[in-house]
Design goal:
Blueprint (H helix, E strand, L loop, with lengths): L1 H23 L15 H4 L41 E28 L7 H9 L9 E32 L5 E11 L2 E11 L9 E3 L4 E11 H6 L3 H9 L3
Parallel strand pairs: 1-5
Antiparallel strand pairs: 1-2, 2-3, 3-4, 4-6
């Protein structure tokens, strides 16, 4: 256990040294913004595989000028291919109140007598002393009780908009999207990440989609910079809270 703790502390110190060196090189400068990269890495390096329905034959109407499923007469302006862009509206307003109470109690008692056991009670009496009572050889008792109370009162409100890119089209027509947005104000960078799987039918005529219509949604909103560094505990404190048994 001690060896593992020492090894973890050394690894943590090495990682923190790299982060410290990076922060020291940025003294007096704004935190750098991430370069524009392939959005596939946001949704994951490996392609997503999901259960697919049975294939269905497409129905064509050669005598009609209107294409089935089109939102415009000449072309559908909604995202439907890899590389297309659509807008994700994030409007999270959640609240939860949970209260739990638990009480438990138990009591038990046992009594054992050795009035006559082939004369062995005399042997026990001689070994224990003259105060031994064979009729009340042993008496056990136990009492236990447990009481617990817990409450959760949480409220969240996030309203953001981000553009995402279609990174993959699944065999059933569903699309994997991923988007990143960074905004730097003074010495703080705010970063918004979103990824998940959407249906083409859920994309509105204005090429937007709600976050509640994204399956396997991964939404992250955070930042990095001077304010974030002040809010983070030191690595020594984090390490001690993990390994401390008390």
């Amino acid at each position: 256990m001690i060896r593992r703790a020492v090894l973890c502390s050394l690894v943590l110190a090495a990682l923190s040294a790299c982060g410290t060196a990076q922060r020291l090189s940025q003294i007096g400068e704004e935190p750098p913004m991430s370069p524009i990269d392939n959005p596939v890495s946001i949704a994951g390096r490996s392609p997503i595989t999901m259960p697919m329905p049975a294939p269905q034959a497409e129905v064509y109407a050669p005598n009609s000028l209107w294409r089935a499923g089109a939102r415009t007469f000449f072309n559908d302006q909604r995202a439907n291919r890899v590389g297309d862009i659509l807008t994700v509206n994030i409007d999270i307003t959640d609240s939860a109140t949970v209260s739990n109470s638990t009480q438990r109690s138990r009591s038990g008692s046992e009594a054992v007598s050795l009035a006559s056991v082939f004369g062995l009670e005399r042997v026990v009496e001689n070994a224990v002393g003259g105060d031994f009572d064979p009729g009340n050889a042993a008496d056990f008792g136990s009492d236990s009780s447990t009481a617990g109370n817990g409450a959760i009162n949480r409220a969240e409100s996030v309203e953001l908009t981000v553009a995402a890119v279609v990174t993959q089209v699944l065999p059933n027509g569903n699309m994997v999207i991923a988007g990143r947005q960074e905004v730097r104000v003074n010495y703080e960078v705010r970063e918004l990440l979103v990824s998940g799987v959407i249906r083409p039918e859920d994309i509105s005529a204005t090429n937007t989609i709600q976050h509640s219509q994204i399956a396997e949604a991964r939404i992250s909103y955070g930042g990095r910079g001077h304010i974030t560094e002040l809010q983070k505990p030191r690595y020594g404190q984090e390490f001690w809270e993990i390994v401390s048994p008390f």
